[in-house]
Automatic annotation (TrEMBL), chains A, B:
Gene3D superfamilies: Winged helix-like DNA-binding domain superfamily/Winged helix DNA-binding domain. It holds the Pfam family FUR. SUPFAM superfamilies: Winged helix' DNA-binding domain. InterPro entries: FUR (IPR002481), WH-like_DNA-bd_sf (IPR036388), WH_DNA-bd_sf (IPR036390). This is Fur family transcriptional regulator, ferric uptake regulator.
DNA sequence: AATGTTAATGCAACTTGGTTGCAAAAGTAA
DNA sequence: TTACTTTTGCAACCAAGTTGCATTAACATT
């Protein structure tokens, strides 16, 4: 069950996703503190994900990140791309590359989550 | 700072990792409920990870899993292999395969976490 | 524009996985 | 056996996320 009404909350949230950078639920709750309740933030993020507008994933410390989907629809979520997290500045974004997963004997693969961590271009050393 | 004393807690915990199956912290706390306090479980798991005896990773719902390391040492954690979670029965284990990650422009890669989800051999349909 | 319906929201209270501080217990070296 | 230090259990805490419910706001219909 996705979005069915164009509410202010939806607009406030979508406005935060102008760039391709991923944002954590926590970050969004902080940014929108004066405008939206945290429950609403979680609920709207959920619905936007159902609708294929955003996709979400976890980083290595267990917090959830959201990013704009490029080619997802309600029925088919295409979020097989890897995500990159800079261990220095903390920023997370989507990588526009394909990772080839080998066949795995005896198992049917449905989804894969790939999180790559390291230093981003601004934090190289 | 890893294990420096061979305590009962360490032995109880290691006894659970006979197979290569991964176990969640939650599962272990449940299994060892009569023997160990949950704080102790978390602390010993932590230390065993520091020592390169276990490695840990998160599944897609944010809970942490632990599995025995094959070739890790205190100094170098080799846990670059992918993990497989059966979406039907919930079991998680380590995959003994290599995933080739392409070069990513402008970024230094340190670690990668790959979680593959689908159906295991017993839950194929 | 006013109205009725139902989805969306805010709030407070709760759940869950995990952490912390501290006194008591258990390992270990001598 | 003693002395020292790590490890443990307990209770209290923390943070991310969820739930129930009364109120508010979209929006289709009139």
């Amino acid at each position: 069950m996705g979005i069915i009404r164009k509410t202010q909350s939806v607009e406030f949230l979508l406005a935060e996703f102008q760039s391709t950078e991923a944002l954590s639920a926590i970050e969004l709750i902080g940014r929108l503190d004066s405008k939206l309740n945290k429950t609403t933030v979680y609920r709207v993020l959920d619905k936007l994900e159902d609708d294929g507008v955003l996709h979400s994933f976890l980083d290595n410390s267990g917090i959830r990140w959201y990013a704009k989907c490029k080619s997802c629809t309600k029925s088919k979520h295409f979020d097989g791309h890897p995500h990159f997290q800079c261990l220095s500045c903390g920023k997370v974004d989507c990588l526009n590359i394909n990772v080839y997963l080998p066949e795995i004997p005896n198992r049917q693969v449905t989804v894969s989550q790939i999180l790559i961590q390291g230093n981003c271009e601004f934090c190289a050393n």
